[in-house]
Amino acid sequence: MYNNWEELKQACKNCKKCRLCNTRKNVVIGTGNKEAKIMFIGEGPGADEDEQGEPFVGKAGKLMDKAFIGVGIKREEVYIANIVKCRPPQNRNPEKDEAQECKEFLDTQINLVKPEKICLLGSVALKNILGEQYGITTSRGKWFEKDGIKILPTFHPAALLRDESKKINFWQDLKKLMEDSIT
Ligand code: URA
After folding, report:
1. pLDDT for 183 beyond 60
2. Which long-range contacts (CB under 8 A, 24 or more apart) does 138-142 make?
3. Of 8, 17, 87, 92, the residue nearest 51 (C-alpha)
4. What is the pLDDT of residue 181?
5. 149 C-alpha vs ligand 1 centroid, how far in Å?
6. What is the sign, positive or negative, of the torsion defined by CA atoms of 163, 136, 117, 175?
7. Residues near ligand 1 with C-beta < 6 Å?
8. What is the SS3 assignment for 55?
9. Do residues 169 and 141 touch, judged by C-beta distance below 8 A?
10. CATH number of the domain within which 125 lies
11. Distance CA 118, CA 38 (A)
């Protein structure tokens, strides 16, 4: 675990712990409010994110921004990160070992931000954070808890681009994220 943001940044930039370092243009660490109450965790950078060094700036990110506006989430008020910080080639899913090597970076981010709630975007984030046994279709929209943090899985915004019927669920889940204080 790293002690502060600067240490984390240096470690990420110099990271060669897995094969994704060979093909990346930029390490995409995370963005947003470092004291956010809500954190979003996606899968990994795509081509646009790799190019710009920022998470969720491509097509899926733009759709997420629209949904954020609709439910009153300000992007600058939340913190957004990914399971892996470097783009998997051809946008394939991150391999288990890649996610494992990258875990210390995400753990550090969670530890530094100390969010009250985490929204997991899609199956890769769900399985890496809560466990392989969970499926996104049955887990989305339900609250979980881990290490004192409330966790709400939902669909990955890229899934909404493939299947419009999931949009309503995504919106409902974001509203739940904003409204519910679970006890
Ligand atoms: N998809 C993700 O999971 N993360 C990004 O940053 C962009 C697209």
Report:
1. no
2. 140/169, 140/173, 141/169, 141/172, 141/173, 141/176
3. 87
4. 57
5. 22
6. positive
7. 42-46, 49, 55-56, 58, 60-61, 82, 158
8. coil
9. yes
10. 3.40.470.10
11. 6
**Closest by Cα among 103, 180, 117 to 147:** 117
Q: Region 144-170: what's the mean pLDDT?
A: 98
Give per-residue pLDDT as tens, 91-144. 999 999 999 999 999 999 999 999 999 999 999 999 999 999 999 999 999 999
Q: Cα 21 to chain center, whole Å?
A: 19
Instruction: Tell me the CA–centroid distance for residue 183 and ligand 1, in Å.
Output: 31
**Neighbour order of strands in the sheet with 117-121:** 30-32, 79-82, 38-42, 117-121, 149-154, 144-146
- Which domain covers residue 170, as residue numbers? 5-179
Per the structure block, which two tokens stand in for 139?
Answer: 């887990």
Considering its fold, how many domains does the chain have in total? 1
Both tokens of 136, joined, read 């996104």
Ligand 1: which of 39, 40, 43, 90 to mutate, judged by most atoms within 8 Å of the beta carbon?
A: 43
- How is residue 109 written in tokens? 């981010």
User: Tens digits of per-residue pLDDT, 20-61?
Assistant: 999 999 999 999 999 999 999 999 999 999 999 999 999 999
Closest to 177 measured CA to CA, from 51, 64, 24: 64
